[in-house]
């Protein structure tokens, strides 16, 4: 049985931390799943470390669907949540319904994530959830708004913090099953986590969230640049470079393949 959205809510009630990572392809998603991660987010961060775009904005729904299908083929246990890319849900509720419907129908993922809060996204989430589409919210730093917000920490003033808290509450009331809190002060994330009955999944939001998510390329040390709050648990850039250099040398010296 794979992890469900209801289980995440129960885990919050039981104080069991939720472990989430991004996944973009079959091979890594399979390893992450077998290692016991609870939730795999096919994040639109796909655009940057994997596809080489400058921001998440150019990513299309078709590109996302292509990667989400590959992730689905690799995952047996974890809940799979797929980001709706920029401008595939903001134009209208109908557009959001069409895009989220394609994600669920074509990829086999169980839920979608979208960025932004009150009022526009609350209305959209309400419609999607009443059509049976589980939705994860995302407030604080929302990378699809990079041209308005930059990549700066959000919610640093009392008013800005209050706005993010109210957005998170509105998303919960609209039916979201969880909410990502990105790059906000730890004490604000703590307040939001205590206020909500749905789980908060933090990234750069301190230790008090109900769960944590990292971009897998950052965790593996594969990203060219990574945000200050990320932690690399391996250095695959240097491992891969060394493996390729060793191979090249052996081919050039006639040592590989051996007789
Ligand atoms: O796209 C993504 O990877 C995300 C995470 C940073 C939460 O939205």
TrEMBL record:
Top-level EC class as recorded in UniProt: transferase
Active site: 182 (proton acceptor)
CDD domains: KPHMT-like
Cofactor detail note: Binds 1 Mg(2+) ion per subunit.
Main subcellular location: cytoplasm
One Pfam short name: Pantoate_transf
A single GO molecular function term of this UniProt record: methyltransferase activity
Biological or metabolic pathway of the protein: Cofactor biosynthesis; (R)-pantothenate biosynthesis; (R)-pantoate from 3-methyl-2-oxobutanoate: step 1/2
Record field: catalytic activity: (6R)-5,10-methylene-5,6,7,8-tetrahydrofolate + 3-methyl-2-oxobutanoate + H2O = 2-dehydropantoate + (6S)-5,6,7,8-tetrahydrofolate
Subunit structure and binding partners: Homodecamer; pentamer of dimers.
Full protein name: 3-methyl-2-oxobutanoate hydroxymethyltransferase
Organism this protein belongs to: Tychonema bourrellyi FEM_GT703
């Amino acid at each position: 049985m794979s992890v469900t959205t209801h289980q995440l809510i129960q885990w919050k009630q039981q104080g069991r931390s939720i472990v989430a990572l991004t996944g973009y392809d079959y091979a890594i998603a399979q390893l992450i799943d077998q290692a016991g991660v609870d939730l795999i987010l096919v994040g639109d961060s796909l655009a940057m470390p994997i596809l080489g775009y400058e921001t998440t904005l150019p990513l299309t729904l078709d590109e996302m669907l292509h990667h989400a299908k590959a992730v689905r083929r690799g995952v047996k246990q974890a809940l799979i949540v797929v980001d709706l890319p920029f401008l595939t849900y903001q134009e209208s509720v109908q557009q959001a319904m069409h895009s989220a419907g394609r994600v669920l129908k074509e990829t086999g993922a169980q839920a979608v994530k979208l960025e932004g809060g009150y009022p526009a996204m609350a209305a959209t989430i309400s419609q999607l959830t009443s059509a049976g589409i589980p939705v994860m919210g995302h407030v604080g730093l929302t990378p699809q708004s990079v041209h308005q917000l930059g990549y700066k920490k959000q919610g640093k003033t009392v008013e800005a913090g209050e706005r993010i808290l109210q957005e998170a509450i509105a998303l919960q009331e609209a039916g979201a099953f969880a909410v990502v809190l990105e790059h906000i002060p730890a004490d604000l994330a703590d307040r939001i986590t205590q206020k909500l009955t749905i789980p908060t999944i933090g990234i750069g939001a301190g230790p008090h969230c109900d769960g944590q998510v990292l971009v897998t390329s950052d965790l593996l040390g594969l990203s060219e640049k990574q945000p200050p709050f990320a932690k690399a648990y391996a250095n695959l850039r240097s491992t891969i470079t060394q493996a390729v250099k060793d191979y090249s040398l052996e081919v050039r010296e006639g040592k590989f393949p051996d007789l």
